[in-house]
Design brief:
The complex is a heterodimer of chains A (395) and B (312).
Chain A lengths: L3 H9 L1 H30 L8 E4 L7 E6 L5 E9 L6 H4 L1 E6 L3 E5 L7 E8 L7 H6 L6 H14 L1 E9 L5 H8 L1 H7 L9 H34 L3 H4 L6 H34 L7 H9 L1 H19 L2 H22 L19 H7 L4 H24 L5
Antiparallel strand pairs in A: 1-2, 2-5, 3-4, 3-6, 6-7
Helix pairs in contact in A: 1-10, 2-8, 2-10, 7-13, 8-10, 8-12, 8-13, 8-14, 10-11, 10-12, 10-15, 11-14, 12-13, 12-15
Chain B lengths: L3 E12 L2 E12 L3 E5 L6 H8 L7 E6 L2 E2 L4 H7 E4 L11 H11 L6 H9 L13 H13 L5 E5 L7 H16 L3 E6 L2 H7 L2 E6 L2 E7 H8 L1 E7 L13 E7 L2 E6 L4 H7 L4 E8 L2 H9 L3 H8 L9
Parallel strand pairs in B: 3-8, 3-9, 6-7, 7-8
Antiparallel strand pairs in B: 1-2, 1-4, 4-5, 9-10, 11-13, 11-14, 12-13
Helix pairs in contact in B: 4-5
The chains are: A alpha+beta (395), B alpha/beta (312).
Chain lengths: 395, 312
Amino acid sequence: MIGHTMFMELRTSWKGILVISLLVLIVGWGMVSIFPTFQESLTEDLEGADNVDLVIPEDESGELNISWVPVKNADGYIVLENDRFSFDFLLTSKLVYMGTSTNISIPYNSTETKYYAIMALENWSVIGGQSINVTVPYNFTDINFYEAMNQINTSGMIQFVGLDTTGKAANLFEELMENPGYSGFTGGRVIDMTEIDGFLSLELFSWLWILVGMFMAYFSVSSVTSDFEGKRMDLIFSTPISREQYIIEKFLAMTAVSLIMIFICAWGVISGLNGIGEIDNLDSGTAFLSIFTMLSFLMIIAAFGIFLAVVFRSSKAGMGINIAFVFGSFILLTISGFADSLRWLKYISIMHYWDYNSMLLDGVFNTGYFLGLLVASLIILGLAIYIFKKRDIPM
Amino acid sequence: MTNYAMKIKNLTKKYGDFTAVKNLSLDIEKGEIFGLLGPNGAGKSTTIRTCLGLLSKTEGEIEILGLDSHKDAIEIRKRTGYLPGEFGLLDGISVYTYLKYLLRLSSVKSDEKLKDLAKRLDLDLKRKTNELSKGNKQKVGVVQALMADQEFIILDEPTGGLDPLMQQIFYEILREEKEAGKTVFMSSHVLAEVETVCNRVAIIKEAELILNEHISTLQDMTGKVLEVEFRHKVDPSAFEIEGVTDIEVDDRKIRMTVTKDIDQVVKRVADHRVINMNLSTYSLEKLFLRYYSNGGVVENEKEGVAIGGGVK
């Protein structure tokens, strides 16, 4: 007798389960597969950086020394400075040097990351060189820059030598980690996104809750309210099934769906890891257990959903509150990173107890948090059973 | 071993200030088909659903098959089939899959009776549950109430949505169940239906039980209608004897209700020259109307089913 109701729940919801499974598979496999491209973009050298040698002074008040490989036939260079590397580099840059030297020293500010582009001018001496010195102002706009370029181009050529930066591209992500919006998720950790585990932590796990959490918030509530709203309770409870068994079987169906999602996500991630050859850096056991930490997080959403369903008996009310519960947890976790005085907020967010980072980054399964959530969900489930047993089943 | 399938004693069910069932007492003997008659909203479904533990009772005691309705709810449901007055089916699966699921919940392995009932009621088990018409859905309900072959069957408005032919088949099935020793407790707002299949009836009105009798007693009680057309006008006082009521005079016709020995009446009729005479069984209709007045009847007449809507 046990299991039929659970099985029926799964059977009648197979379409939804299939869709979420596919999504989880695509996301798990896809995110891992993107990693090499992402990694490359992080560690990639800036264009022509080999031609440029940037010497950053050790003390903050020192000067930045830039030297570059001379270009044949070039008889002058310009150096442009920008605080970011962007598509409109030429237009928004500041001219910091123009002349014949291939080695310059300029003021250095250690708190800012600057990008420097070096360009060689060919045959500019034909028009005397001095004309450029005169017509290009130190801080030029796009208009007078083009004017200057025109002057150069009337007789000479402009050639790109190289680009380099005082910062390191990876530092950008370290700065990101210090962003309060993120530190809630990382628990103050500095996560290296150039490694597969760090990448997955931030690019997969930190938002996977939207997919699986929201699905569970909806699914758990509707598993019970649809029986109320579809007037199926009378038929179910004309059979010798007890109310506690009914609730437990619904919960077991949610557990089964959670396990399906976990296994499929793990399958996607592990086959992705194999595909990109990162399996040595993140073994399949660790990957699986990291994803498995999701179970008790989903269980508490399921238990709360069933609780809401027996209290409100309405899909709209139940789903609304359960989604708010999941989303609210996310917001609490985010806010908790904003300031030390708000740090405590994370302890009332269920998301804090979904500790995938310990497993993923340190290889330690956080059994305490995992079981804690599981016990909490069983308590909520017990409450749901108590209420369901006590109350009338409306017609 | 008790002789009662169900004993309800002083049952009261309140929703806040509203009393849905008031101090209702009812005994249903084993092996009978008991009809609970009443207009919509009288408290029939509430009574039934309270008996099955779907609703909690405010006061009173209910014993089903010798078991306490609250404490032994699971055991009772093992032995009781139930057709709700209103129900929905799980979508997207076949009728058979759904019925088989309910059968499994009742721990019944054999689907023989399920198939047999479906065949007799002309219900296609392969159809998807969400494609069913109202009548076919009702057939699913009827099949599920009877398929587990339980000893006590509770039916809440069982023929709603069934066409006359199917109703006949359904009554036939009910009689067979009775012959097999089952007890049936059914609610209805269709008088003719109750008269056709039940051997005992209770009438419930505005949450209260107002009558509980054997159909035959009721029929005896209500008697027969005798209509006589005489050649000449006859003094109706001649018929004012014991057991004759409701004497109506319409020119040369006299109509009266005879509840006792008809012999005396016939002898008095014979004193006059008779042109035509008609004796008919007084249907429960009048009785029903008498008990139903204010509200119930009007509503049922609107629906056009309660009075004379059944098929005989």
